[in-house]
Amino acid sequence: MKTNDQRKAWELLTQQTHLVLATQSRRQPGFPYTSWVPFLAHRAGAVLILVADIAEHTLNLLINEHTSLLFAETPEASASAPDEPLTVVRLSIFARAHRLELPEAEAVCQDFYARHPGLQDYHRRLGFVFFEMDLVEGRFIGGLGRARWLAGADFAASFSAAPAPAPAPR
Length: 170
Fold this sequence. Notes:
This protein has helices at 3-15, 56-63, 102-115, 122-125, 152-160; strands spanning 18-24, 32-42, 46-52, 66-72, 90-100, 128-143, 146-151. By secondary structure, it is an alpha+beta fold. It has one domain: Pnp Oxidase, Chain A (Roll), CATH 2.30.110.10. The mean pLDDT is 86.
């Protein structure tokens, strides 16, 4: 990944707090099911999400680990042209999801809850679960006419070279 694109992708992942999660629908096979979930770009080169264990997207992930994640800056935050939504930076990633069981979840929950303090202890109190998304490949759109495919190793390299994300703005 080009250094500038790495920086832009990392900024996108650290400035946003939620992503669009697309799972394979168990109700309508062959169709994607999308939802809006909180996430953390973890320094290990993966993305962590926290979801309710009874949610439709969770049930879908337990049947089929293949997913797609969409991160996008808001048109208002776009440095290029706030009134031109097609120029915003965005990133679509193919990923494999795996549920983190309690020992693994406990190891990452402190970082996640630092980013999302309003969700503190949901995995202990409310039946929520953590999934780690292993990033396979992504499509980085740096604005209108600027697109490239990125390998999963590119994400791991940019994650490990960057500072940890700050707590989410309130």
